[in-house]
Amino acid sequence: MAEKHFEVSRLPGFATTAIIVFVALYVPIFTLVAYSFNASMSVAVWGGFSTDWYVKAWSNQQIKDATLRSLIIACFAAAISTAVATMAALGTTRRKAFKGQTFIYVMINQPLMVPEIVTAVALLILFGMIKQATGIQGIGYVILAHSAFCIPFAYLPIRARLEGMDLSLETAAADLYATPWQTFRRVTLPLLAPGIAAGAMLAFVISLDDVVITEFVKAGGQDTLPTYMLGQMKRQLTPEINAVSSMLLLVTVALLTAFFLLTRKKNDG
Amino acid sequence: MTKLLGATAILLATTSLAAAEGELQLFNWGNYTSPELLEKFKKETGITVTVTDYDSNDGALAKIEAGGHGFDLVVPTHQYVQIYAEKGLIVPLDLSKLPNHKNIAPEWTNVDWDPGRAYTIPWQWGTTGVGVNTSVYSGDINTSDIFMNVPAELKGKINVVPEMNDVVNLAVMWAGGEPCSEDPEVLKKARDALIAAKPDWISMDYGATEKLSNNDWAASVNWNGSTMRARIANPSVAYGYPKEGYPIWMDSVALLADAQHVEEAYKFLDFIEQPENAAMISAFARYANGIAGSDEFMPEDMKTAPEIVVPEASKAAGKFIPTCSPKAQEYMTAIWTELQK
Questions:
Q1: B90 in the same domain as B25
Q2: Helix or strand run (H / E) with residue B131
């Protein structure tokens, strides 16, 4: 290999920087997981190995309810936001560049730019007015809010996939007298499927992890797992929270791994 | 777009329209409500209580103010009760529906933030004082001198919790003033003493339960509940109630103006005014409850805990910290900012 060939890994300090980054990213997480096996009540003083906190968390009805609620919300939010994001991605890529394209991108990705707390306060006020005017309560508000901020997370991988897909396949299908719907159903959609799945999974994880917006939008009996955990701050934190966090982490890592595998396929093929 | 609207319609249609009977929505601090208490209440009345958590008074207030929240009862800290009442968010209680209202301990029936207990019922209360390892320092611990004028044995071994309201008001009371003082002389004395004492402190940090337990710190300005847990782990830890004055906080239950389940709410309020039920709240959350006669139903380790049962001699020095005036708040913040440098 030629000496002058540029590679980031040969820059001075590359290894040091990499190590610092990995330590900063993973040491806190490993500490959290390690203390979930702590025998004592403390989240900071080691008192021997035990899996008691997992048993305790597992038999805590409030945690079970909150987890189930989190999963239901995340499923709905992922489905809705992915459907919307797919349509948005098709509308913004399968055509010639048009005036105001950047503006549309910014509009779709608005939840990424606006601070979460601003959205949360805005939703609190708006939903408060709607609830008072109509008297309608329910989990639907949380699902709607989650669907909205998950859209850009679903949109970005789908759009990336679409941009990498050759338009000539669709053109060929049209040449062979396929109707626009047939073209979409038989050509575009199957090619796009990994992107959609990746987008849905990302949306699912984002919804599952959300705290700020949920905290503001939730009504009676609508605590999700993250807001339940936040509520524990009033009193002493016990390793039960570490155990719950570790399990949540496991689910998130599993989904992100699936996301990675799906997007990798795209680059290979 | 039609699809989106359709989905929205379906979502909203699946949600309940009217308030169901036999249920109650309690908006409370997280990890603060005993599940056994709710079970017992359900067994006696058939009413299911749903608890939703919050983690700050401001957050809870914001949600209640926005309206349409669906909650029936809320548990604000004392200095927020007036705010809720002034905004018309909570309503005066109909005492004829609360036969057990007389059970509120005499010292908590006429608090200045809710005269005559017109709006609220005590849930839990606690204090801020000093936790001291008595094997390191054996002198008098019932004084703010512990951190304002650090004894030689504790120099470089004492922590101060980074809570502005608690610390500055302790200092102001130590200097002879009232909480939220605007008196320049008192404030100057408090500020000078804090700045002079700071080099003797090891840190201004949280985590006193652990650090007192494992002897990392020999003392700390700390809350009573945390000090009790430290003492259980490390018997030489003791809790001092500064005689110059120490802060008391109390979380109380109030009925919301737009509550949907008013009858159920009264049943619950009356239920928790019974001593044995109040004791269940304490047994779970580990703080005192403010209902007379609940002591005998308390767990053994709390009945006699000096951190929970305030000694007679220290009772008078406890003071509720009100919502300070903007001016007092400004002074307090100025002292605090300087102290943090």
A1: yes
A2: strand B120-133
pLDDT value for A265: 58
Report yes or no: B29 at the A interface, CB cutoff 8 Å.
Answer: yes
Task: Report yes or no: B152 at the A interface, CB cutoff 8 Å.
Answer: no
The interface pTM score, or ipTM, of the predicted complex is 0.73
φ/ψ of residue B48, rounded to 5: -90, 125
The reply to whether residue B50 touches residue A221, judged by beta carbons under 8 angstroms, is yes
Token pair belonging to A189 = 């959609």
Residues A228, B53 contacting (CB under 8 angstroms) = yes
Which residue of B12, B209, B213, B307 to mutate against A (max A Cβ within 10 Å)? Answer: B12
For residue B278, give the nearest of B80, B41, B28 by alpha carbon.
Answer: B41
With H, G, I as helix, E, B as strand and everything else as coil, classify residue B234.
Answer: coil
Percent of chain A residues topping a pLDDT of 70: 94
- CATH number attached to the domain at A57-268: 1.10.3720.10
Q: Which range of residues forms the domain containing residue B118? A: 2-125+250-303
Instruction: Tell me the pLDDT tens digit for each residue of B258-301.
Output: 999 999 999 999 999 999 999 999 988 888 999 998 988 998 88
- Average pLDDT of the residues of chain B: 89
Residue B60: closest CA among chain A residues belongs to which residue?
A: A216
